[in-house]
Structure formats: C-alpha cells, structure tokens
Design a protein that fits this description.
- The structure is a single chain.
- By secondary structure, the protein is α+β, with helices and mostly antiparallel strands.
- It folds into two domains: 82 residues, SH3 type barrels (Roll), CATH 2.30.30; 68 residues.
- The protein is built from three helices and six strands; from the N terminus they run E-E-E-E-E-E-H-H-H.
- Strands 1-6-2-3-4-5 form a six-stranded antiparallel sheet, with no helix packed on it.
- Strand 3 and strand 4 form a beta hairpin.
Length: 164
Amino acid sequence: MVPTINVQDAVVAIKPKSNLKKGDIITFSSNDARYTGLTVTHRILDTINSEGNYKYQTKGDNNTTADDTYVPSNNIFGKVIFVIPWLGYLRYFLTKTYGWMLLVVLPCLSIIIYDILKLSNSVKNSKSVNNIKFKDIEIKNDDVKEDIPVKSIDKKEEDELELL
C-alpha cells in the first residue's frame, strides 16, 4: 500500500455500517491459497453483489495487478479510518529480547529497587525512634495546673522498650 500506508505503519479499522465502495481501503483476512489467514490491507477495485453476499476485488496501491481472489464480506475486519506512522517499529522492537528488557524489565526493576531502598530507610528511621530512652525526656508544660504522676522505668522495662 506504499505510498498511502508504509511498511511498519499501523492502521485503525472499524466495521463499516454501510456497504463498502470502490476506493475504500479495507483490512481483511486473506483467502488466497498463498497467504491464507494473513491480515492484508488493500484498496477496493470492484464490488460484486451475488444474492446479497458482497465480494470485493482488491489491489495494493504499489502492486501491478489486482489480487487473484475476491474477498468475501465475512473476511473483512474493517475499513481503515486512519494510519499511525511507524508504530510497527515499536512492536518489532518489543518482540526482540533487548527491546523487552529496555522498555519493560528495566523500568520495573528500577521501581522495585527504589521501593527496597525506601523501605530500608524507613526501617532505619524507625529503629532510631525506638532507641530513645524515656528517662532522658523532660516534659515541661506550664499550662498544666495539676501534677501528672510519672512512672519511673526500671532496667527490665527499659530493655523491653528497646526491643520494640
């Protein structure tokens, strides 16, 4: 379909609500013996209506002759509505091991490593908070009018607190 649609371009096709006409670009499953099941995008040259069953003769823009077989309407995926240039290159890149590693695995690993570092820093900070000795803290509040009883901590209770 070059120059209309280049190799490695992606097409977006939708099922047409009305009959297709000459000049429409369609994407279909080939029923040609050489390319059975292959997805093809070609332009319609002619339409044949045989008792309500439509068949289409197609041809690629860059081909010298029309396709050997007619395309039945049930093999048509849709009419091309727009083209996304070069998107096929991204698909091709992702099918390669290095592409998959670079665009999927590497970002995932970096997120996991970041979370591990963040978690380890959090654990370090929580240990430093737990090591505060209560006997070293002095509470001063001039607004308090009544005496608050303060329990003294013995060595056993201090050790238990340090374990937390």
